[in-house]
Amino acid sequence: MRGALLIIVLIAMLIVGILVVKDMKTESVDGVTKQEAIEKAEKSVKTAEDAINRITDKAKKSTEY
After folding, report:
1. CA separation for the pair 30, 61 (Å, rounded)
2. Among 23, 26, 31, 53, which is most buried by a count of CB atoms within 10 Å?
3. At a CB cut-off of 8 Å and minimum separation 6, what does 34 contact?
């Protein structure tokens, strides 16, 4: 079960990384300033961390039963 949790966390981190890179590439195309791109990336990271925490909590609860 811990292995599955680790895999889920790694996949979530990969998705966040892809989203951050995608957001950083749009700063010159859409005219987004660097500060706005950084704020979007921080928001994406926070959202991903919340999702990871929820997944971790559910995995812990599932092992308790």
Report:
1. 43
2. 23
3. 27
Cα–Cα distance, 49 to 40 (Å, whole number): 14
- H-type helices in 1-65, by residue range? 2-29, 34-64
pLDDT digits (tens, 9 = 90+) for 19-63: 887 766 555 556 667 788 788 889 999 999 999 999 998 888 888
On whether the CB atoms of residues 44 and 52 are closer than 8 A, the answer is: no
What tokens were used for 7?
């895999």
- What pLDDT does residue 47 have? 92
> How large is the average pLDDT for residues 9-22?
85
Q: Which tokens is 33 given?
A: 């300033």
